[in-house]
Structures are given as C-alpha cells and as structure tokens.
Design a protein that fits this description.
The chain is of the alpha+beta class and 329 residues long. Helix content is 18%, strand content 30%.
Length: 329
C-alpha cells in the first residue's frame, strides 16, 4: 500500500475498484476487478492512526448513492456472470432510485433479492424463453386473457380459499439513516392496517429513502417513495382475497406464455351463486409444468387494485378487462 499520507483521511476511495490498474509492487500483476485486489491508504489500515499499531480491520462498503434499478441489476448480474446480461430485459416504470449499502461480503443473489424487495413494489428476476427478465408485482397489470371453464381440466373440483398469507395487521419497514454510508443506524416506518388484528406484521426493507441537505438548517430524509409503498400495501390488504392453488390446464401455447405476476380472468365454479360469482381477475403466483402429464398447474391469487400505482391506473386496467370480457362473451 502507499506510504502514510495525512491528506488521505478515513473514507478515501480506494484504488482499483472500477478498472484494473498495475500492481505497484509486483510486475505483471494488477489491482482491480480481475484480481479481486484493491489498494487502500496507509491511514485506513492502521489502528488509531499510529504507525506502531497492528494492522487495523478495514471496513469496506459499496453503494449506489442514488442510482436507477435498471443500472444496478445489470451491474450485479455481470459481476456474477456476464452471460446473464446478454439478453436481459425488464420493466422499470415507477421504480424509485435506490441507495444500497453493501457493507458485508454476500453472494450476488443476496443483493439482488434486496433490490427486488426494496422498492415501491416488489419484483422478481424470472427466465422467459432463455431471457432473464425483471418483472414487477404490478397490482394494476392488464389482464392477459380470460380462461374459459372448458379449458380448465379440474374446473368442477377447484377449491377456492382465503389467501391468508396476504393478510397483515401492520407493517415495519426499515431504511438506512446514514447519509454518508458509514453509520449503522436504521429508521422504521411502522403502522397498523386496521385489518386482521391477529395477523402477522409485514417486515421489509426500503432502499429508496435518501438524505438531503439544502442548508445547515434544512436537511433530512426524503421518504415520499416509502410513503407510496405503504399506501399501496394498505390498498392490497383492505379486502379479503381468494386463492386457487391447483388450476390445471393442458399444455398449450396460450397457457405456456403465462408467467409470474401475469393476470387472467376466471370464474371458479365454487363461487357460482355467491356475491363473488362471475369472472374475477387473478394474478399468477406459481406455475408448474408437467410434461409427462401434459398439464400445467397454476397458483392464482385474486388481484387487488391500488390507486397509488399508475402503470396503468385501476380505471385503465378495468376498462381493458371489460373489453376482454365483452370479446370473450
């Protein structure tokens, strides 16, 4: 490492993080992403800034201070395997910029999972036709098509139950309150839904809250995206939602095209004659293909709209569903 220099204080950016540079002492070797070795300053590596002390334990962290999700995910994917980003695609409308502090050595997929769960709405990386796709859990997603009863192999036997894992009594979402990326403090957004008092509390982590400083007396944390997330969450737990765990269809091009978070219309036989009878919008939360049995088994959860997510609005999604219904009938 370079000799001690008092002008390089704690927190100075190391060398060799982004690009490879020649190793200062070993000819033919490099510092940087290829070797996994970086260069830090002397003052960062000694205890109590004393030359005679033993080497210090250096705390390193990586972060995106205010970056787009569409940049962060491909970057991490490329670190794991550059091939993964060759055909990467996704939908990022409505995502807020994130600030992610990577202050521990974790697997790439650990950080990807945090990004997927830390924005305004949840999302997943899924494989579609050998392409890795980022897909949002968009509650206002347009309906793909309406499933006819004759297309469902077990239409007469389907069991409809309450989706109790979508019922929460409240929420506790943590967010980082260290604007310099070094502190360990976190804040909490905590509240009650006013529904299902004996249900569990939704625990989550938010990456969108960020520090701002206009003047010495005007600073704080911007939490508008976290507030939007809480409002969406409240919308989604206001009503009892149904779930179907085993809807079986034949393997056809139409049903093979359905992916996680797609929406379909379907009227379960079990709800005929009730106030909830008729075609209901369902979101796909699971899909199991049985090649030998020539069938696909879907897990569906009743869709719940939100007025706090505008891609599309509930009105636009309902109009599209009405058009699909008229075409189907």
């Amino acid at each position: 490492m370079p000799p001690y220099n008092p002008t390089h204080p704690t927190g100075t950016r190391p060398r060799g993080i982004d690009t490879d540079i020649p190793h200062p002492f070993i000819p033919g070797r490099t510092l940087g992403p290829t070797s996994g070795v970086i260069q830090i300053w002397w003052q960062q590596a000694i205890q109590n800034a004393q030359r005679a002390s033993r080497p210090n334990r250096v705390r390193m962290f990586g972060r995106w201070p205010h970056s787009e999700v569409s940049e962060a995910i491909p970057f991490l994917l490329e670190l794991g395997d550059p091939v993964l980003v060759d055909d990467f695609m996704g939908e990022f409308n409505g995502n807020a910029p994130i600030g992610l502090y990577m202050d521990s050595a974790e697997h790439i997929w650990h950080w990807l999972e945090i990004i997927q769960a830390g924005n305004v709405i949840g999302s997943q990386l899924i494989s579609v036709d050998a392409t890795l796709k980022y897909k949002q859990e968009n509650p206002n997603r347009p309906r793909r098509f309406t499933v006819r009863p004759t297309q469902v192999l077990n239409h007469e036997e389907i069991v409809v139950e309450l989706a109790n894992d979508f019922m929460f009594s409240g929420w506790d979402i943590t967010y980082n309150v260290s604007h310099d990326g070094v502190g360990q403090g976190v804040g909490h957004s905590v509240g009650s839904t006013g529904f299902f008092p004996v249900a569990s509390v939704l625990n989550g982590r938010d990456l969108t809250t960020r520090y701002f400083r206009n003047t010495a007396t005007d600073d704080g944390f911007r939490m508008e995206h976290l507030a939007q997330r809480v409002n969406i969450f409240r919308n989604l737990v206001e009503a009892h939602r149904y779930r179907i765990t085993e809807l079986k269809t034949e393997i056809t091009r139409q049903f093979m095209s359905l992916q996680l978070y797609d929406v379909v219309g379907y009227a379960p036989r079990a709800l005929e004659g009730t106030t909830r009878g008729g075609v209901i919008d369902w979101m796909v939360y699971g899909r199991d293909v049985d090649i030998d049995g020539n069938s696909i088994t879907f897990t569906l959860v009743e869709r719940a709209f939100t007025d706090n997510w505008g891609f599309p609005t509930p009105e636009q999604a309902r109009a599209q569903a009405d058009y699909d219904q008229a075409t189907w009938e």
